[in-house]
Amino acid sequence: MLPGLRRLLQAPALACLLLMLLALPLAAPSCPMLCTCYSSPPTVSCQANNFSSVPLSLPPSTQRLFLQNNLIRTLRPGTFGSNLLTLWLFSNNLSTIYPGTFRHLQALEELDLGDNRHLRSLEPDTFQGLERLQSLHLYRCQLSSLPGNIFRGLVSLQYLYLQENSLLHLQGKKEKGKSLLCSWRMDARKMEPVIVIHCYYY
Hints:
two-stranded parallel ribbon, 2 helices, globular, signal, Dev_Immune_Receptor
């Protein structure tokens, strides 16, 4: 190393500057391309951008994630951060939701999967782990039946929307001594077989 450079690096002012740089906090995660991010509450909006998959590198602090009106086909485990409270995925091309996709989203309160016309079936443990989920939207899909225990563990569920499917019946199993009770009504205008508008445990 040149003597002049060595003396420069040993200067007290430069040493202080280096210490200050090391003390700076790491940069906040950047917003995914084509998305809009807000800080309070932490929100990422990626709607209507023709995404074929969930954008990578979502900020881990995200509480609200809006992905509606895209072309997303598949959801896999590890895609979403555990701080999510609201997740909108309506009006996509969803056909497959792998088991465990939502399992770690223990804070999630609202999940909208509606208007996915290629979504024909769901696995029994699709919603496992969503103990705080209050509102679940599955309207306007191609569901003709649901596993009898698919809502097992959803102890906070208040609203379940299944209109404009081809469901003929839904049986709720007991959860910790409680049974799942759903309110049903017919849509006379569209002649849909069943609409579930409210579910709760009793």
